[in-house]
Input
Amino acid sequence: MPLLECIDLAPGYGANAVCPPLSFSVEPGDYLCVLGENGSGKSTLMRTILGLQKPVAGEVRLGDGFLPNQIGYLPQQTAIQKDFPASVMEVVLSGCQGKHFFQPFYTKAQKEMAQKQLQRLDALGLSRKCYRELSGGQQQRVLLARALCATEKLLLLDEPVSGLDPQATQAMYDRIRDLNRQQGLAIIMISHDIPSALRDATRILRLGNHPFLGDVEEARKTFLTEAPKGGEEA
Amino acid sequence: MKTLQYILFLSLIALLLASCGGAPQKSTTANDTNTPAAEVDMTTMSKTMVYSEINFMRSNPERYMGKTIRVEGIMEYNPLLHRRYCVIADATACCSVQLEFVLKGDHSHPFLNALDSQNMQLPGANEITPQPDPQNGSKIVIQGYFQTFQEREKQSVILTDALYCH
Amino acid sequence: MSEIIKNLLDYLQFPFVQYALIAGTLIALCSSLLGVTLVLKRYSLIGDGLSHVAFCAMACALPLHMTNDMPLTLLLTIACAVLLLRSGRNTRFTGDAAVAMISVASLALGYLIINLCASSANVSADVCSTLFGSTSILTLTPVKVWLCVALSVVVVTFFVLFYHKIFAVVFDEEFARATGVRVEMYNLLLAIVIAVVIVLAMNLVGSLLISALVVFPALSALRVYKSFLSVTICSVVVSVLGTLLGIIISILSGTPVGVTIVAVDLAVFILFCIIGACKGK
Output
């Protein structure tokens, strides 16, 4: 029972599709990595799946009983956010906002869940701190906790390690892999990092000049044979 | 600590506001020996207050009826209409309001007969000659009795039996 | 000193001073609440822009011989607020350039219309008092004070009930939309509330100084406080106290009300900068 199905989906703006029509589904426990050069349409695809923009053609179908507000999302940070005066708890709790139309105050259960998510990511000690005073890696962890407040089933991540130092990058990959393998969360992740993608993912989708969609074993073989051409541009 | 300071300051403001009163009562000793003390002396108030109070007078004349008003402003004499005005500007000096006045002993005002039947003419007023007018645009201090009259279906305010103070 | 206190207590007995203090507090409360969201969304000059639109709308009411220009003013200002604040990545006509253009164009148009249709002799005084507010706040009628009260109740209620949604939308609009928050609706509501507050706040400080009232308290709070809730509360307190102090100083010393309030806000901002710098060390 797939969580999400894309049927002949052509994401784009207006009448211009950024990539040819795609058809694939995401099952529970999948880890789909979306690769491709800049401008190949990765972010556009993700935004189309989330319903943030309309596709040029095709549709995104959600599984039975799976609602749009049950998808977690970790977008790229804006400059405004990096400098925002908010406590970490306020940021994480804002992940619960999509659940109810009218909810002036957070319930105890929601506050406990926020704490739980922070603990899952070893970030409970940050809960009282000011968001803008955290390091890049810490901020990403907080945003991940926020995304987890919105979902238990499917998580979409847009370049979650961009701008992080190698240590933080590795820590983030470990956490995402843990969420997928131990906690059973389905992941769709946009990335530029092919080695890590080949290591952690179950399926690869590559957009751009050499499109590819398949299992990670097939991907390894395909990419290996491409290596003599100079490999992928990062 | 900061919160406590804010609360204290707010309470102080609230306390001050609690001293709400009715009509304003102000009396001071006369600034000169020529005129007695005015009931509403605006020469001791700041420009901001004077302008606001004049506006308030015009929209709530019943509160000031018959009171002696003393105010400082700029002289304006309209020779065509033979009417005198004391012009008061606000603090930004871009807006001004005119307060018309009739000098003591002057009977030439076109609407004098239409003035309030509360006869404000003092005994012996008919024998007094009005004071000479200062130059147009000069600073003046006048004191008179606050009244209203109807001018072409509009109620206007005026100071009668006014005297120039020095 | 006792002379000053005595004068102040005398002045506080005047009804128009009481109205000014009440209306001032309420308008300061509303504009500071909105100021935090506007500053964080990087729309600090929108207060200025929308107040110029309101000025233009009031000017338009002249040739149409309207006795009450409030409905037209509100309508035009709300329309512009919605236009400027609407969300969406693909809108070309947003951001500070749009605010600048609308701000300057409506100021010029408004003045042009007033000049062409001058029914009163004192055109420049009308313009000046609309721009700088002059003593408008000290010449309020009870009706206008009640209007302020009604508006404040609406704005505060809106803010309290939708506080967390507003935070979510301001902090991360994309995430909020992706997780099911009706971002368009909240942006629309915010735009309407901002427009209404600005039209009414023009009575307080006039068009030119609106931005200060919206922006300074929020900026002061941002120097020192670290969570969205504490920034909002501090902004409100600073704004209200600054306004009250500004009004009191202006009636005691005879300075124009609007500029005095801004001067006080500026002094508070500098103070908070110093506090923030000391805390940081």
Remarks:
- Chains B and A do not touch (no CB pair under 8 Å).
- Residues 20-165 of chain B form a domain with the OB fold (Dihydrolipoamide Acetyltransferase, E2P) fold (CATH 2.40.50).
- Helices of chain B lie at 2-18, 47-59.
- Strands of chain B lie at 40-41, 68-78, 83-89, 96-103, 139-151, 154-165.
